[in-house]
């Protein structure tokens, strides 16, 4: 590839890096050294590929959504079906990889942060299989909002710790996981769920997730006879988006769109769209776009989707924004909700509310392109976890 | 010209005394108390004050200091206010060094150059940025040093020797050894392992070595004072502020008294 990021110090242009307290620097260096050694190790790769195939169920299909295509009257819509993975989202690709790293490093305990609970479930799942002790930090607000996932994690043997500090959501769960890690650094591996955090996490999570884009390249050659014209993915921390985009970065003919959570609108303060409406700063170990006030304090965010409700974003996205390679945009809660219903009723696929943001943007993009153009939308997760949120919004009582 | 921190540690060395370095979060429990609290710390025997700059996401801090940050931020305490507080403190105290301790984002938002200039102007002596690892520091240190600010760095139990050497070369004022793997206010202090690590650190630096994180009482302070040049006490004091947040008039006398206990413990340790 011509694109070679991050650099040796973990920077994507001015973004990324390692902004953590001294105690974590040596553990991060060791993690990086182990990863650099293992990422080309045939045994490690064989084990990772086997897990992705037989445990996760890869490759995930590239589905031609003919009904949506017809309805929207423009480009052909293809859905990358990450929702069909084991545990129902792309998150498992990364946890399988990181748990394998934990095993190779001889760690006996893994910790994770989670917002919607998908990454927590994926971590608890792999911990159960590898017989690792697993502790998941989850904001108290999210524990309330996502009780089915909390129960799933407990069934899998994980301990779920409600986080009561700060805004009691994903960012605070990440603070708490970092505090646990700094305390138990000898036996504990921190499984970060997205392409954020200090180097080497943005790199290694990207590498584990990029199986998505590699499959799309092979599948689109087979089904379309060429590469697609555009890729669309939702961006919270940005792991499903980078997983799709990364293998395409050198393919100049492929346009890429990252869709942030516009919440109640970018003109309000109630959104979670740092790339669209934030500014560069430092949070959770890396420099990236964040949402902060005039004193540099991190702002509370809002999104209908708990998985996108985060004031930062992976540093590689910050770089891809500045370099112009990826176009970042946002859709509102209402647009995402409409897309959720439209996909459900048109194709019989219930998407995660996160993924519904990507669908909502594809809906805007498709009519602007001709029927001979092809758009791949990352359907990053399934929506079963969201039916309670949707029902509540529509005033329906589920028992 | 030697810095106020250098002078303070030099004088302590001559007197064979150990530095007592209390930490409080600026703006806690409310901004109007901060300057009075700083003076109270000095009356109780503080040699250096570490003044915390509150941050919404203090990932290296335990629950006590997290809550202090939340109390301070509820009043909207920003870096500009804190610099004003130091200016006010300096009207009555030109002797006690003040070190600002906090996270990078508020400083970067203020602007590093503007911060360094104003910090110097109001009489700040040193800066300790918890999440600024030495690798990222070259973008920031020249600006801070150019304004005569000492750059204090953390060393940790996990820091390998080569790293310690690099950090010691970049640091000035003093080095802050984190006594345990954990967050501020944790409770697993192991004096023997601290002593061993400090001996190794001393092979690489002539800077004074302060030790903090997990020093909860006079006994622990005394034990650490036997092996370190300075003792940092934060969460134990901040917990008192939390306990008395509804009776702020009691905070000043209580903190002064706590400092006196710690002072006695340190002076006992030095006379042994």
TrEMBL record, chain A:
GO terms for cellular component: cytoplasm. This is Tryptophan synthase beta chain. Its EC number is 4.2.1.20. It catalyses: (1S,2R)-1-C-(indol-3-yl)glycerol 3-phosphate + L-serine = D-glyceraldehyde 3-phosphate + L-tryptophan + H2O. It is an enzyme of class 4 (lyase). Tetramer of two alpha and two beta chains. Belongs to the TrpB family. The keyword Transport does not apply. Residues 57-381 form the Tryptophan synthase beta chain-like PALP domain. Its cofactor is pyridoxal 5'-phosphate. Gene3D superfamilies: 3.40.50.1100. Keywords: Amino-acid biosynthesis, Aromatic amino acid biosynthesis, Lyase, Pyridoxal phosphate, Tryptophan biosynthesis. The beta subunit is responsible for the synthesis of L-tryptophan from indole and L-serine. Coiled coil: none annotated. GO terms for molecular function: tryptophan synthase activity. It comes from Fontimonas thermophila. InterPro entries: Trp_synth_b_CS, Trp_synth_beta, Trp_synth_beta/beta-like, TrpB-like_PALP, TrpB-like_PALP_sf. PROSITE patterns: TRP_SYNTHASE_BETA. The modification N6-(pyridoxal phosphate)lysine is found at residue 91. Pathway: Amino-acid biosynthesis; L-tryptophan biosynthesis; L-tryptophan from chorismate: step 5/5. CDD domains: Trp-synth_B. Pfam families: PALP (PF00291).
From TrEMBL, chain B:
It holds the Pfam family Trp_syntA. CDD domains: Tryptophan_synthase_alpha. Gene3D superfamilies: Aldolase class I. The active site is at 50 (proton acceptor), 61 (proton acceptor). Keywords: Amino-acid biosynthesis, Aromatic amino acid biosynthesis, Lyase, Tryptophan biosynthesis. It catalyses: (1S,2R)-1-C-(indol-3-yl)glycerol 3-phosphate + L-serine = D-glyceraldehyde 3-phosphate + L-tryptophan + H2O. Pathway: Amino-acid biosynthesis; L-tryptophan biosynthesis; L-tryptophan from chorismate: step 5/5. The alpha subunit is responsible for the aldol cleavage of indoleglycerol phosphate to indole and glyceraldehyde 3-phosphate. NCBIfam families: trpA. This is Tryptophan synthase alpha chain. It comes from Fontimonas thermophila. The gene is trpA.
């Amino acid at each position: 590839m011509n694109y070679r990021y991050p650099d040796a110090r973990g920077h994507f242009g001015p973004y990324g890096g390692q902004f953590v307290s001294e105690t974590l620097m040596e553990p991060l260096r060791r993690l990086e050294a182990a990863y650099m050694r293992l990422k080309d190790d045939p045994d490690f790769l064989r084990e990772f590929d086997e897990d992705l195939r037989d445990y996760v169920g890869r490759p995930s299909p590239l589905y031609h959504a003919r009904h949506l295509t017809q309805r929207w009257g423009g480009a052909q819509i293809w859905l990358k079906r990450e929702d069909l993975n084991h545990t129902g989202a792309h998150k498992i690709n990364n946890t399988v990889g990181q748990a394998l790293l934990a095993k190779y490093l001889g760690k006996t305990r893994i910790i994770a942060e989670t917002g919607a609970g998908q990454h927590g479930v994926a971590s608890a799942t792999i911990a159960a299989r590898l017989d690792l002790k697993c502790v998941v930090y989850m904001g108290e607000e999210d524990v309330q909002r996502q009780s089915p996932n909390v129960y799933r994690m407990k069934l899998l043997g994980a301990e779920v710790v409600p986080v009561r500090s700060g805004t009691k959501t994903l960012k605070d769960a990440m603070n708490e996981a970092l505090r646990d890690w700094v305390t138990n650094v000898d036996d504990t591996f921190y499984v970060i769920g997205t392409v954020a955090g200090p180097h080497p996490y943005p790199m290694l999570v990207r590498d584990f997730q990029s199986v998505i884009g590699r499959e799309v390249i092979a599948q689109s050659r087979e089904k379309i006879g060429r590469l697609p014209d555009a890729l669309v993915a939702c961006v919270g921390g940005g792991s499903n988006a980078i997983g799709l985009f990364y293998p395409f970065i050198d393919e100049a003919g492929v346009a890429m769109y990252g869709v942030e959570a516009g919440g109640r609108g970018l003109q309000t303060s109630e959104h979670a769209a740092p790339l669209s409406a934030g500014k560069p700063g430092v949070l959770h170990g890396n420099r990236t776009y964040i949402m902060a006030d005039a004193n540099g304090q991190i702002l509370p965010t809002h999104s209908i989707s708990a998985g996108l409700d985060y004031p930062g974003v992976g540093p590689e996205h910050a770089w891809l924004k500045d370099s112009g390679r990826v176009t970042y945009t946002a859709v509102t809660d209402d647009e995402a909700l409409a897309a959720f219903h439209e996909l459900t009723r048109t194709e019989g696929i219930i998407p995660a509310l996160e993924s519904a943001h990507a669908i909502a943007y594809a809906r805007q993009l498709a009519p602007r392109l001709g029927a001979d153009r092809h758009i791949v939308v990352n359907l990053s997760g399934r929506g079963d976890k969201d039916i309670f949120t949707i029902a509540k919004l529509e005033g329906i009582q589920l028992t | 010209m030697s810095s106020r921190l250098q002078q303070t540690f030099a004088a302590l060395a001559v007197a064979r005394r150990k530095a007592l370095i209390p930490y409080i979060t600026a703006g806690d429990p409310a901004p109007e108390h901060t300057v009075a609290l700083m003076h109270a710390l000095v009356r109780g025997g503080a040699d250096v004050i570490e003044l915390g700059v509150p941050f919404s996401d203090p990932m290296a801090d335990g629950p006590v200091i997290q809550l202090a940050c939340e109390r301070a931020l509820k009043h909207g305490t920003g870096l500009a206010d804190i610099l004003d507080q130091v200016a006010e403190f300096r009207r009555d105290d030109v002797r006690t060094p003040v070190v600002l301790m906090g996270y990078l984002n508020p400083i970067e938002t203020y602007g590093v150059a503007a911060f360094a200039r104003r910090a110097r102007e109001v009489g700040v002596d040193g800066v300790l940025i918890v999440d600024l690892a030495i690798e990222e520091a070259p973008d920031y240190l020249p600006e801070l040093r150019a304004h005569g600010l000492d750059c204090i760095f953390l060393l940790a139990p996990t820091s390998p020797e080569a790293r310690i050497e690099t950090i010691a070369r970049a640091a000035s004022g003093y080095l802050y050894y984190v006594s345990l793997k954990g967050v501020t206010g944790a409770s697993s202090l192991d004096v023997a392992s601290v002593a061993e690590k400090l001996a190794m650190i001393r092979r690489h630096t002539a800077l004074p070595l302060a030790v903090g994180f997990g020093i909860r009482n006079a006994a622990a302070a005394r034990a650490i004072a036997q092996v370190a040049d300075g003792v940092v006490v934060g969460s134990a004091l901040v917990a008192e502020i939390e306990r008395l947040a509804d009776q702020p008039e009691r905070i000043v006398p209580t903190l002064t008294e706590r400092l006196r206990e710690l002072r006695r413990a340190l002076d006992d340790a030095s006379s042994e």
